[in-house]
Every structure is written in structure tokens, then in C-alpha cells.
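Gfo/Idh/MocA family oxidoreductase: C-alpha cells wanted.
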Amino acid sequence: MKDKLNIGIIGLGGRGYGLMDGVILHMDDIEIVGVCDTYKDRAQNAADKVEQVKGNKPFITQDYKELIASSEVEAVIVSSAWTGHIEIIIECMKAGKPVGTEVGGAYSIEECWQLIRAYEETGVPCMLLENCCYGREEMMAMNMVKQGIFGEIVHCSGGYQHDLREEIAFGNENRHYRLQNYIHRNCENYPTHELGPIAQILDINRGNRMVSLVSMASKAKGLNEYIKNKKSDDEALMHTEFAQGDVVTTMIKCARGETIVLTLDTTLPRAYSRGFRVQGTKGMFMEDNMSLFIDGEHNEYDFKWKEQWNNIEAYREKYEHPVWKKFMQDGVKGGHGGMDWLVLRAFFDCVEKNEEMPIDVYDIAAWMAISALSEQSIAMGGQVVAIPDFTNGKWITRKA
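Answer:
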């Protein structure tokens, strides 16, 4: 195994620069040799930061194909706007470059199939950098599920519930892609934060799969109210009709019979929550109140409802996921409470050791497809939409 892995980064906006500055530059075995962004100043700022911290000056380009084609670049991180993710991943695979991609939702089912075909033709690995799969609570819940603490899992729910009104409304000033998406699309546009951990708990693509969904959206009023109060001098936005519903609810049915409910809620005033919940025949895990309910332990129905729950912390020592036990011992680092470090470390380790990606191309297609499918369902008034089997039947025998 080489001492250093030379990488290129495509997309140096808030997320890309944050990953670089907060995580990648602090990994001794990773060298950033190329940076790319549509906006030259972003690429320049990133290159300057790399030189300041690491001492080497990466090359700068505004053409992602030039970065991918470079013989210096051995692997690629994609943190560009949503619309470009799958197209860039495919280019990386065709060039023989392992690729880790930031999250988002697909714009069509066809592009998901293009991704699958590119992987099956090239064999070049790619990984979705879904950091929430490495969240402490999510991994603890998964560990408990695998040990049978909650019995047979029946239902899971989660959400991307995050007040993004300022980010969206000032999208033109900040050169952020969310604004145009909220003007033109109405869908579950950011499904993987909540779906990723649930898919791993339910063995999606590895003994189970998602078979159908129904999605509905509320009216869109939150952004108009925000703009009226905070940005009334913006004549164009004051008269913009947003397509994106304030709250989108998507219900998914799985082959083994479990149900999943996803909630997108980003344009109304609210506290942040991923709404992560796992419910089985012997108990449940609820992230919102950081609590567990285990049958036989918390069944005192004396109307003191708060006492029916037991705080997650009381079970940490027994059920903490081994990855997090080691992480806590070594010292938690990186953004989003350590999740960013863990997901990037997993990707780089798999590239360096030539191992299978834990969140692979079939997961990318299945999870990102929810956006395009929910858009169809909403447009048809909440009709049931079939979810394609991107593994072509291999989900039945694929191992976790």
C-alpha cells in the first residue's frame, strides 16, 4: 500500500471547501494535487489553503474533465452542485478513478441506470459520502438492531428537517444551487441523510429492497413569507412562485414488509432534526428525544409518560458501535460531530486497500432515485410509483 493517496476535489463551495479544510487537510496520507470549481475564485482559495497547510500547490481548473484526466490524480472527491454528481461520477469511472461523491437526489431514473451500467462496464468503485450513516446514534441503533435488541424491525422513519430559508433565499448572492431547485422542482430533494442509515439497518440491496413509494407535498408558503420579511427589496424573488412544497412526506414499502417514512421540511421555522426512529417487535429507538423503549423494561403505564423512556446514554457502554468506541478513544475530529471524518476515512481506506465500498454504486442509485420517483408521485397526486431494482435481482443474495 502506498504512503500517500493523491486526490482531486471537484466543487469547492461551502461543502467542498469545508470537507477539505476541516477533514482532508488533516489526514497525513492524503495529498490534494488538483482542485476544480466552476468559479475560479473558489478553486484559487482552495489551492491557497492547501499550499498554506500542506506546502504543495495543487493545479487549478474550471473543467472537471481536465482534473479527472490528470495522471497526478488517483482518486476524486465530488462535492459539486446536485445536477452534476452522477455525470461526474460516470466520467471518473470511465477514467479508472475511484470516486467519492457528496449526497443529493437524482433528476431522472435513466441517469441512475447510466451510473449502474458505467460501474458494471468499468468495475471502478464509487462511494456515496453519506456522513449520517456514520452518526453516533445511527450506528448505535444499527448495532442494537444487529444484536436483536428491538426484535424484528417493522418500521423506520427519518427526515431532513432543517431551516434552510436563508440559504435558499440568498442563493443568487451565495452562488448556491438550492434556490433554482426550489423554484422548479417539487420532490423529496435530499433523501439520503435520513434514508442511508435506515437502508443499512433494513439490509437494502443486501437481502431486502425498496419496492414502491407514495409521496405528497404540502403547499409552498414558507419561502414567500421569509422573503417578504427578510428580502423584500428583491423584486424578482418577491414575485417568484416556488414549486417545492414546504413539507414533503414519502412512504416506502420494502420487499420484506417493512415501511419507511421520510420527511423533507426545510422552508418553515423549526429546530434541526433528522427524526431518526427504528421500531421493532421488542422495542424502539428515537433520536429526537434521545431515548429507548425496550419491552419488559419500560412498560410502566402509570401516566408518567416521560418515565416510560430510558435515556440512550444509559446504554452507551453496552451498545456503542465498535467504530465509535475506537473513535472516542482516539479522539473525535472532523465536521458534523465526527461523521465527516469517518465517512471520508472509510472511502480513502477502501481505495488504498482496494476493498469494497461500504456504500456502493447500487446504494447510490437506489437512494438518490427517491428524488426523481417522489417527483413523479407528487405530480400524479400521490400515486404509487414502483422503485426499480438496480441490482437486477442480486439483492437477494448480496451480503452485507
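The chain has a mean pLDDT of 96. The CA atoms of residues 217 and 248 lie 4 Å apart.

Cheers.
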